[in-house]
Amino acid sequence: MTRLYRKWLRFRLGALFALFFLFFVALTSRAFQLQILAGQTLKNIAVKQHTKTLQLQPERGIIFDRNGEKLAVSVAADSVCADPAKIAQPATAARQLAAVLDTDAAALSKRLTGSKHFCWIARRISADQAARVEHLDIDGIFLVKEPKRHYPNGEMAGHVLGFVGTDAVGLEGLELKYDRYLKGAPEKLTIVRDAKGKVMAPRTERADKAIAGREDSNNLILTIDGRLQYLVESKLKEAVRAKGAKGGMAIVMDPRTGEILAMATEPAFNPNTATKSHAERMKNKIITDCFDPGSTFKPFLAGGALEEGVVKETDVFYCENGSYVVADRVFHEANRQKHGRLTFSEILKYSSNIGSVKVSERLGKEKFHEYITRFGFGSRTGIDLPGESPGLLRPVRSWTRVDTSTAAFGQGVSVTAIQLITALSAIANGGILMKPYVVQGVVDKNGQVVKKFVPTVVRRVLSPETSARLTAILTNVVQDQDGTGKNARLVNVAVAGKTGTSQKFDFSRRKYSSERVRTSFMGFFPAQDAQVAILVTLDEPQRDKWGGMAAAPVFRNIGEQILTTIRTDIRETPSLPAETERPIEEVNLRLVRAPQVETDFSTPASDSATPNFLGMTMREALKTAKQNRIELKMAGSGWAVRQRPAPGTPVGDLRICSVSFSRED
User: Fold this and answer.
1) Whole-angstrom Cα distance, residue 635 to residue 325?
2) Nearest Cα to Cα of residue 392 among 406, 378, 411
3) I need a labelling partner for 228 at 20 to 30 A (CA). Which of 63, 356, 458, 661 fits?
4) Which of these three, 522, 551, 566, is where a domain ends?
């Protein structure tokens, strides 16, 4: 081998080694760049291409009434989502989906042709729609389970409960007020694709607790009695239709504690279809809307006058035969009545405007204004519902003689319905003003108490003696044959109350209208030991435009039903020889493992006497029958309205009782 050949061979070997060395250095550099320098970036890109994480809203807590009946629950519903990159024919898929989901195909097609890897198509669809979507079997279209808020009773207590939005956030009512308790920690749904883009089994995991603040949602226990709520809503709806009214409101309250037992607004509102409802209809007008109280304001003037000692029941006032001049104004009696001399008690009994004006003159505007504020007008009651209005009460320094006079019969001041029933309850409660509330407590999934709410005293407004004297006067308003509230009388139960008819201000004519009025009646019973207070108002009734004619009968209908089916222990002479059910205020919630939140509704009965099933739900009746070893034969649904044998009747050897249930009153 020549010297030249060896030299050339060494050159070629060196060149080849150098080439391999350079290749190795390049490969190592590239690997270092991919694995070390750009490793995390490329990993993120890969994760983004193969996985998709969705945040699923948590299942909200259950809302129970005071008897353990569910008013708001969460149910599983399917939602439709898409990966546009995996859809081969977006236009065709859009047409197919639009036909199932009843949506616009063009808008859906535009969404599916986007460059995103994820988009929502429809949220919380029906089971039938979900089955049809699944049957389409379109690549890139997926179904995921989400909790959907459901209100089993539809419209019942809709304004109190409120509703939630698409992302399970409370937007109105208790759903908004207690959102932080009802809403638990969200979950993450991770969808993983293989190398071919096929979706593998998704996995669900709890979101970061530190961010969520809590792991599980909590349940609410209300003061609302579902049976009573249904009753009040039914009677109010009947009255609004019968009188041709624009709307109405009704509240039932325990004056001793401030517990709201029922709260109804007409027209009603169904939170299941909140997205289809007008905003005005969703308002809880009992706490948001103000109105002139009319003659229902007179008891608060009377209470202040009695407390200050400026009047006695027997004091006589000359009512000017229906026409009285104050400054540049002439005041008249309602319905153009003419009164001569009336005692202080008779001024309330006959609802004399001029008599009330003269009482306000004797009390003085400063003291009158003071008692108005002491009764809670002009400020929020603090009820645990969002959106409460303080009403409208101008400072006393801006009051003229005419302002003082008009306030005496409920004009020139604006109040809310919740303020009115709360102030009345202060008279019924021996002069003590209580804070109204609708939630008894918050419990977790295991039934452990998270937060408990108890009756709260706001202040003493009247002395017990003044309260008793005023109650006696208000009792005459109802119990006397010539009283304006005689249509509110209940059988064997003394009622104290006051009628009211307030004119609505006509802004176009800049004066109060005689055609557009609001009729009201508020009262409590038993008069000397008040356990139930009720306020009923009808907005612009077209027939019977007086509180004693339109609203008082609604009070009577509600009261009679309460005494017959719910509070059978109140009557002085019970109409049925029945074992009495536990009073509403004694129904103390027993917090047990959710979702079964139970209370004891059983009626103590001897082995020989048939229990009183009237007014019970089917669950309560079955529980009572089991405790008394009685075979129950049931028909219908709703609340017990009839039973055979009658309550108190000997059971007999067969120990069988037939009970009929109905949702009608």
Assistant:
1) 65
2) 378
3) 458
4) 566
Residue 89: enclosing H or E segment and its boundaries?
none
From its phi and psi, is residue 563 left (phi > 0), alpha (psi between -120 and 50) or beta? alpha
- Determine the pLDDT at residue 594: 36
pLDDT in tens, 433-447: 999 999 999 999 888
Nearest CA to 251 out of 90, 114, 420 is that of 420
Strand partners of residue 658: 633, 644
Q: How far is CA 27 from CA 30, 40, 43, in A?
A: 5, 19, 20
**CA–CA separation, 403 and 523 (whole Å):** 27
Q: Is 584 domain-assigned? A: no
Among residues 400, 319, 402, 315, the alpha carbon closest in space to that of 356 is found at 319
As a whole number of angstroms, the distance between CA 323 and CA 344 comes to 18
From first CA to last CA, the distance across the chain in angstroms is: 122
CB 66, CB 587: distance < 8 Å? yes
CA 469 – CA 312 distance, rounded (Å): 10
Within 8 A by CB and 6+ apart from 481, the residues are: none
Residue 166 is classified by DSSP as T
Closest CA relative to residue 484, chosen from 334, 332, 291, 324: 334
| DSSP label of 568 | T
Q: Mark whether 198 and 232 lie in a shared domain.
A: no
Encoding tokens for residue 528? 């000397």
Read off the pLDDT of residues 78-104 as tens digits, 9 standing for 90 and up: 888 887 877 878 888 888 888 888 888
Enumerate the β-bridge partners of residue 263.
251
Asked whether 471 and 464 are in contact (CB, 8 A), the reply is no
Supply the residues annotated as catalytic: 295
Q: How many domains does the chain have?
A: 4
Crossing angle of helices 417-428 and 464-479, rounded to 10°: 110
Mean pLDDT value of segment 329-344: 91
3-state SS record for 609-656: ECCCCCCCEHHHHHHHHHHCCCEEEEEECCEEEEEECCCCCECCCCCE
In whole angstroms, what is the distance from residue 59 CA to residue 123 CA? 15
Contacts of 352 (CB under 8 A, 6+ apart): 319, 333, 339, 342, 346
Range of the domain at 25: 3-37
Q: What does pTM read for this prediction?
A: 0.74
Residue 60 maps to which CATH number? 3.90.1310.10
Same domain, 244 and 125: no
Characterize the bridge pairing of strands 316-318 and 341-343.
antiparallel
Token output for 197: 């883009």
Q: Which residue has the tokens 């949602």?
A: 217
- The secondary structure of 222-275 as a DSSP string is ES--HHHHHHHHHHHHHHHHHHT-SEEEEEEE-TTT-BEEEEEEES---GGGGG
Distance CA 571, CA 125 (A): 50
